Amino acid sequence: MSGWFTIPAARDAEPAWPVWARYTRMSPPLYEVESTDSVAAYTPEEQALNTAVHEAAHAVLYMSGGYKIGGIVLHAPGDMSHLGRAQVDYLEASGPWQDFVLACAAGERAEDRWLRESGLWSADRAWVTECHAWRDRSQVAEVLQTCHNRALTFCGDHGDWGDYAWVMDRTDEALDRVWDQVLALTRYLVEHRTATGEEAARIAGFAR
């Protein structure tokens, strides 16, 4: 990852979008985008798996640090009353800042990995994954600002812990260690659409 692209809508936005919502590693589609859903063009089954793997990755990486969640829910298709298609309820905890940063970035990185392993990856779909991760990235930025008074950067610097390239690398390494657990929880969420904290911990192999 040597450079970042500006999301077209961000170039026209006033005031300017925050840094974590402006940039994607993948270049935007060359055609006019009606919506990210139209770009991704998932079947309902693919969309359910995509959403579930994203949330399962958040939850598993958070729990892998010894923390607890209150539960996970996948919202009904088309339900626009929430901030996203699904959410994880993180229970308050205290620990190293990196633990929460990697848990925040896990959804985005898990989606990309799942797309590749499922034979569904395309540059346009990877772009959509990054566009949808702006709230997760904003949490990463908040942690860096709160803990270190430092702004999150998008410079492609893999050696700088304040750069999102470093965050992505460390998140990929963390997911390598728990990927089977992420997939197990993903399958459960697709079938049941919700999981309590206790159920998620049990399925992912973490003692409560």
Principal-axes geometry comes out as globular
Quaternary arrangement of the chains shown?
Answer: single chain
- Count of strand segments: 5
Q: What is the straight-line distance between the termini? A: 38 Å
Estimate what percentage of residues fall within beta strands. Answer: 5-15%
Helix content: 55-70%
Number of helices: 9
Rg, rounded, reads 16 Å
Main sheet?
3 strands, antiparallel
Order of helices and strands: EHHEHHEEHHHHEH
Structural class: mainly alpha
Question: What is the average per-residue confidence, as pLDDT, rounded to a whole number?
Answer: 92
Low-confidence parts? none
For the largest sheet, list the strands in their spatial order: 4-3-5
Molecular structure report:
This protein has 208 residues and is mainly alpha-helical. Helix content is 56%, strand content 9%. The longest helix is centred in the C-terminal third of the chain and has 29 residues, at 164-192. It is globular and about 45 Å long. The termini are far apart. The relative contact order is 0.17. The model has no long low-confidence stretch (mean pLDDT 92).
